[in-house]
Amino acid sequence: MDRLTLEKLQAFVYLVAITLGLTCGYLEPQFGRALAGALWPALAFLLYATFSQIPLVHLPGAFLSLRFQLAAVTGNFLAIPVLVWLLLSMVPDEPALKLGIALVLLVPCTDWFIPFTQLGGGDTEYAITFSPISLVLQIITLPVYLFIFFGKEFTASIAGDTLWQAFVGLILLPLFAAFVTQKWAVANKGGARAINCLAWLPVPVLALVIFIICASQVQAVLASRANFGSITVVFVLFLVFTAILAKLIAVSFRLPARQGRVLAFSMGTRNSFVVLPLALALPAQFAAAVVVVVYQPLVELLGMLFYLWFVPKKMFKDTAD
């Protein structure tokens, strides 16, 4: 099996992890609680392996394709927040659910949208150059949009010491470690092989993380099951309206078809496991936010199967077609 095949099968892998985790946690609650201690190290390693695939050392090159970058920034950091704000009005008036949806939909994917772009006939070079600038911008803009959406008092109530510790320990430190690894890989023989080996890890490690979360959070999952229908509708509508927005923005910026495909996949995929540590660090009354963040990539991955046909065949057809 090659890595692209593994990534195409990841939805099935995650479904198995969810099923096993919920079963183990329900039948043996003490087992689920005992696993909780392994969650943070697993998350840290997951994010390190993920960040190692983002071309951080090539961040300056992102500005060489200015028109595409402006289109991608407009779509991901201006248009999509407005869409998320509108979609939140469809969610039951439960702060944990709304916070989970906002967390996961406000941050664009920085890694697995690249293989989707490749499979969908997009220009992967543009995807690679947008990835590091997207990561920087989402770290900056996420707290701003949470403040705008939920207000000062609500934001202050969730931004406790644990949340900042999670941000520093599980996002900034793995990000710095990945940057150091990439600098080492550039200067040493065998560096590319090491980076390629790390590229195999996000899917199985994320499956392990999901298993641990489901085993230890089974009660939160069961308590939220009545809202899965409305949450699913929101995530599906997000994918539908995002495709429309990507087309409108691509036309406005006069992007060629292959760049338009990159834009569509970057806007349609979200950085669920980067915000997962933040969701896990929230107070206990926001446990449902974790369930939302874990559930979103399953809907997204099924949506990407549709995107892989629709984006190159219907939205952004080659002029030669």
Written description of the protein model:
- The protein has 321 residues and is mainly alpha-helical.
- The chain has a single domain (3-315), classed as Na+/H+ antiporter like fold.
- It is built from 16 helices and no strands.
- Helix 2 packs antiparallel against helix 16.
- The longest helix is centred in the middle third of the chain and has 35 residues, at 124-158.
- The protein starts with a helix and ends in a 6-residue tail after the last helix.
- The relative contact order is 0.19.
Q: Would you kindly provide a brief summary of this structure?
A:
It contains 16 helices and no strands. The chain is 79% helix and 0% strand.
Keywords:
321 residues; globular; single chain
- Per the CATH scheme, the topology name is Na+/H+ antiporter like fold
Number of domains: 1
Give start-end ranges of low-pLDDT stretches. none
CATH domain class: Mainly Alpha
**How many beta strands in the DSSP annotation?**
0
Distance between the termini: 32 Å
Largest sheet: none
List the helices and strands and how they pair.
Layout: H1 3-8, H2 10-27, H3 29-35, H4 39-51, H5 66-88, H6 95-105, H7 113-119, H8 124-158, H9 161-187, H10 191-199, H11 202-216, H12 218-224, H13 228-252, H14 257-268, H15 272-280, H16 287-315
